[in-house]
Amino acid sequence: MNIVLLNMEEAASGRLPVDDHRAKHILEVLGITLGGRFYIGVIGGKRGLATIQALDEKYISWSVEWVEEMQKSLPWVLLVGLPRPQTARKILQDVSSLGVQGIHFFVTEKGDPAYAQSSLWRDGEAEALLLKGAGQAFSTLVPSLAVHSSLTEAIVAVGKNAYGQETKVFLDIYEAEVALDAAVREASAALVAVGPERGWSEKERGLLRQHGYVGAHMGERVLRVETACVAAGAVVLAAMGVWKRHQL
Amino acid sequence: MNIVLLNMEEAASGRLPVDDHRAKHILEVLGITLGGRFYIGVIGGKRGLATIQALDEKYISWSVEWVEEMQKSLPWVLLVGLPRPQTARKILQDVSSLGVQGIHFFVTEKGDPAYAQSSLWRDGEAEALLLKGAGQAFSTLVPSLAVHSSLTEAIVAVGKNAYGQETKVFLDIYEAEVALDAAVREASAALVAVGPERGWSEKERGLLRQHGYVGAHMGERVLRVETACVAAGAVVLAAMGVWKRHQL
Q1: What is the pLDDT of residue B186?
Q2: Residue A164 has pLDDT above 90, yes or no
Q3: What is the Cα B185 distance to its own chain's centre?
Q4: Chain A residues contacting B via beta carbons under 8 Å
Q5: What is the sign of the dihedral through the CA atoms of B151, B154, B156 and B158?
Q6: How far is A76 from chain B, CA to nearest CA, in Å?
Q7: Is the pLDDT of residue B246 over 80?
Q8: CA-to-CA distance for B17 and A76, rounded, in angstroms?
Q9: Which residues pair with B17 in a beta bridge?
């Protein structure tokens, strides 16, 4: 955790109970005490530098110098065939760090629909991983998350929140027409669909093409789904020129 | 395992003991029996399609249709600050899948030198992960591996096997001069240095610059080391135009 993320109420209160997991992280992992400083952020909002002002048996309290400029969200959305839960955990955390706006998992024809019943999707575990990934990246911007019962449902849901001018690609090592970076070069936004471990069905490929998604590849090497999601996200951001536009 | 990797002797014999872990994978995980086919490769050599010709209590035997054309190795090398073993395991497997030619870990000033004593670096565990990553990617090309006691040692070792015209970059979110993709655009080969979890020391930055490495960034988001290695590898391959040259 590089930045401590709070909801608006917690941020307004300027304190956390000492037994909160974030308070414990500040005190025990970061080893910060009275007068010490740490990065703080409001989920979906501003970031700032906090200074611990008081510390007692019940609360840790701080003051904050807020940075007025809001962080920019990055213009990409991920659709991904529902993988086994352990793979989904890595994807949730890592693509959140990479600044994805939304992650849409969907049950695939060749995948196991039982994956959708995992405890990961209940009790906030998935959301906690998104927060962890954002916190790793010093970001307050937490991606939206949905689990759909089919690719069609995912495509329709993503289309409703579309940017209007996005480039749509799906990773397909077998039937790709173009390299991923060439497909999204200088695009203003990208929707990236990654298939399940066992690959796309013919019906799914047809659906994607019908909705304007273009098959793209990252060379001839078959990657694990979680590796492909990170690799594709980074390539898309680079090729769109996002890192040049958002200069440090 | 998408391709079963063998050494030259094993490949020449055309068989494996049934209790070998690859034989078990073929029979139990892939569920292939007499007459069934699977992809096979010689480590560092050719690939082919094998057909099981005999199966008894001791051996699984096959014939192979070899593909004469050798796979091309990808022109990048990774230097990475020695992380905790669990992180190193992910890096070994994933960047092997991404076709790196060599991985050079090195003990860093801000890192823990005890990481070099992990069992990971003995008894072939690291090498097994490299094989696993290559096998995932349908590749017979297994990266070289070295663990150095310092950054200087790593830079010297990498320099000895250099391509002659490589572009050298180090990831540095704080003092980067250029976006990673811009730094390696159309380069013929790239050496990519990734810092340890706690970042570069000033001395390490100086050493890198002295040896011609340019600071590069992937935006303003701080990534986990294993995420950064995958993201950087993919971006470098895309920006160098490797995926266009090696068209499917």
Answers
A1: 86
A2: no
A3: 21
A4: 2, 71, 74, 94, 97-99, 136-139, 173, 176, 179-182, 217-224, 227, 230-235, 237-239, 242-244, 246, 248
A5: negative
A6: 14
A7: no
A8: 49
A9: B59
- Contact list in A for residue B2 (CB cut-off 8 A) is 222
Domain boundaries, chain A: 4-67, 76-245
Per-residue burial over B19-39, b if 16 or more Cβ lie within 10 Å, else e, is ebebbeebbeeeebeeeeebb
Q: Do residues B238 and B245 lie in contact, with contact meaning Cβ atoms separated by under 8 Å? A: no
**What backbone torsions phi and psi does residue B226 show, to the nearest 5 degrees?**
-65, -35
**Among chain A residues, CA nearest to B243:** A219
**What is the average pLDDT across B22-44?**
94
Helix axes A151-160, A202-210, angle to 10 degrees: 20
Q: Reply yes or no on whether the pLDDT at A86 is more than 90.
A: yes
- Residue A248 has which token pair? 């440090």
The contacts of residue A85 (CB under 8 Å, 6+ apart) are A115, A118, A119, A120
Mean pLDDT for the stretch of residues B48-76: 94
What is the pLDDT at residue B247?
47
Is A223's CB within 8 Å of B99's CB?
A: no
List, in order, residues 6 or more apart from B118 with CB less than 8 Å away.
Answer: B85, B88
Q: How confident is the model at residue A109 (pLDDT cuts 50, 70, 90)?
A: confident
Q: Is the ipTM of this complex over 0.85?
A: yes
Closest-approach residue (CA) in chain B for A242: B219
Query: What is the CATH number assigned to the segment(s) A76-245?
Result: 3.40.1280.10
Q: Which chain A positions have a beta carbon within 8 Å of B136's beta carbon?
A: 222-224
Put simply, the answer to whether A238 touches B243 (Cβ < 8 Å) is no
Q: What is the percent of chain B with per-residue pLDDT over 90, rounded to a whole number?
A: 85
Give the CATH class of B4-67.
Answer: mainly beta
